[in-house]
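FORM 12-B: Structure-to-Sequence Request
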């Protein structure tokens, strides 16, 4: 799709060249790479190669989202992953909110992914269900980003198309039955107070994936956008530990993978 508006300053895709272990970051619905920039830079200082694509229709103008489908969002993440594979011997994926949905979908198609770290991942959001049958041309006025930290400022939209919400709902419907195809190690970060994605999403995902190695860390002082909240340093610490623990695993051999 062709975006009609320029990228907002600070919302750009970013890439940090490091060693042969790659980390793909996936931001959430209506967010931008800015929402995970601090996380990405912290991982970069550990020596990892970090890539964070900006999802189509995000970080420009909310009218650009009218032109996007969830296939567009997935294709941008998939291409960033394939690019990372060209220079890295192993790749981990970290996704927040809908970025977690995208990460799970990617892992279901690419079992060679070394591990997933999911931050308040979305697989079912009941409060959005009322948008499913609304006119697609309408717009929704957005609330302030769900961040507990008072001075945190996320680049996002003040409005969003109903069509974009319908794409999100349809995408979660598509990914939910594929959870059993995720077999790589998974770690989840779950905010106990999340006003966007019910915390039960994390538990549902952990119960339905087929991974032998899976664990959860609870966040007591963060809301939904935890990558910008009070426990960002803790997320970084645990994510680095997860990557180090699983970097010693042999890279998986893949047969008949749908890319």
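FORM 12-B RESPONSE
SEQUENCE OUT:
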């Amino acid at each position: 799709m062709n975006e009609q508006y320029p990228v907002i300053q600070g919302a750009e895709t970013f890439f940090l060249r490091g060693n042969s272990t790659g980390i793909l970051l996936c931001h959430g619905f209506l967010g931008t790479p800015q929402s995970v920039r601090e996380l990405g830079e912290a991982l970069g200082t550990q020596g990892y190669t970090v890539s964070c694509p900006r999802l189509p229709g995000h970080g420009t103008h909310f009218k650009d989202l009218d032109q996007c489908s969830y296939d567009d969002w997935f294709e941008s993440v998939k291409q960033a992953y394939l690019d990372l594979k060209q220079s890295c011997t192993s790749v981990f994926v970290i996704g927040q909110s809908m970025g977690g949905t995208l990460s799970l979908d990617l892992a279901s198609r690419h079992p060679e992914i070394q591990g997933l770290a999911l931050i308040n991942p979305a697989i079912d959001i009941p409060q959005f269900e009322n948008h499913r049958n609304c006119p697609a041309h309408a717009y929704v006025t957005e609330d302030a980003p769900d961040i507990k930290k008072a001075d945190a400022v996320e680049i996002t939209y003040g409005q969003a198309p109903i069509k974009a919400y319908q794409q999100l709902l349809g995408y979660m419907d598509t990914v939910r039955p594929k959870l059993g195809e995720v077999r790589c190690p998974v770690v989840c970060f779950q905010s106990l107070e999340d006003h966007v994605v019910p915390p039960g999403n994390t538990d549902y995902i952990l119960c339905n994936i087929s991974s032998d190695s899976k664990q959860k860390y609870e966040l007591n002082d963060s809301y939904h956008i935890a990558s910008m909240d009070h426990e960002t340093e803790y997320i970084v610490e645990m994510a680095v530990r997860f990557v180090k623990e699983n970097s010693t695993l042999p890279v998986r051999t893949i047969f008949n993978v749908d890319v």
